[in-house]
Write a structure and sequence with these properties.
alpha+beta; Immunoglobulin-like; 2 domains; five-stranded mixed sheet; four-stranded antiparallel sheet; 9 strands; about 40% helix; about 30% strand; elongated
């Protein structure tokens, strides 16, 4: 009963993590049609920022942001907020919101310019991160947004960096636990339970690899890539655990499982009638 409970416990956190990833990947804000938006940061078009040429963001620097909006709807458009943010797995790791007052009549175009100080960015994120520059209306809903790739020159000890370090520690613990189980022949005799036991280390390896790719600035691991890396690594680990040889019980386990009546009969010497011979 204890071994089975441990096997289930080891399978809980990777399953929960997969559910969280799938839930965050499904989150997407709807954008109303009929609003055209262009923007640039320090004179560079935001729409041109990609994995090969990301928008570099230096902590503590001040950037000039210019936005042009065209209202193609039949009603006045009110803009109350502009937000520059970076997201990973649906989670926001850096965000800078600026309040504005702008009303655009139907069929008209307006623009706004402002200076944004990237204060505290070093403690929020580092590496290549997918972001966007979005404008919000009076209701708080997003009116328009331009996705981009940012190269944040922050610290590894930022919130995003600590997120990756936590993933690494959890993966190392899961891998060590699985290695000890293999070395001590403690894996379950059931193939499915062995596969689930090996699922956690594989899932963690996929997530850590995607995080490393982001921090090392190899490429931008968007939500699809995170899920792909984690899913492939978890599937391979599960198959390795499922196809692994059934562990043989140790001699200690055999002794523990022995029938007490057999042990008593084996250790008892029966003397002949009349008692032992002097």
């Amino acid at each position: 009963m204890t071994a089975r409970a441990n096997g289930i416990g080891h399978a809980v956190w990777p399953v929960l993590l997969l559910l969280v990833l799938l839930w965050t990947a499904a989150q997407a804000g709807a954008r109303p049609d009929g609003v055209d938006m262009t923007a640039n940061i320090d004179g560079r078009d935001v729409a041109t920022a990609s994995g090969q040429q990301p928008m570099r963001l230096e902590p503590g620097s001040t950037v000039q942001i210019a936005i042009a909006l065209t209202n193609n709807t039949g009603a006045p458009l009110q803009i109350r907020q502009v937000e520059l943010a970076g997201h990973v797995l649906g989670l926001s790791f850096f965000s800078y919101s600026t309040a504005v007052e702008l009303t655009i009549a139907p069929g008209k175009s307006e623009s706004l310019r402002y200076r944004l100080e990237l204060r505290g960015l070093a403690g929020q994120a580092t590496g290549l991160i997918g972001g966007e520059l979005a404008v919000y209306g009076a209701s708080g809903a997003a009116v328009a947004a331009i996705p981009m790739v940012t190269d944040v020159r922050g610290s590894l000890w930022s919130v995003y960096g600590l997120f990756g370090i936590a993933l690494f520690v959890l993966t190392a613990l899961a891998f060590a636990d699985a290695a000890v189980a293999v070395a001590r022949h403690r894996l379950s005799a059931n193939r499915w339970q062995r596969g689930l036991r090996m699922l956690a280390p594989g899932l963690g390896i996929g997530l850590v690899f995607a995080f490393t790719a982001s921090v090392a600035r190899w490429w931008v691991p968007d939500t699809g890539l995170w899920l792909a890396f984690a899913g492939v690594a978890a599937a391979v680990s599960f198959l390795l655990g499922y196809a692994s040889p059934t562990p043989e019980p140790d001699e200690d386990d055999l002794d523990d499982d022995a029938d007490p009546d057999d042990i008593e009969s084996a250790d008892t010497y029966r003397f002949p009638a009349g008692g032992p011979t002097p």
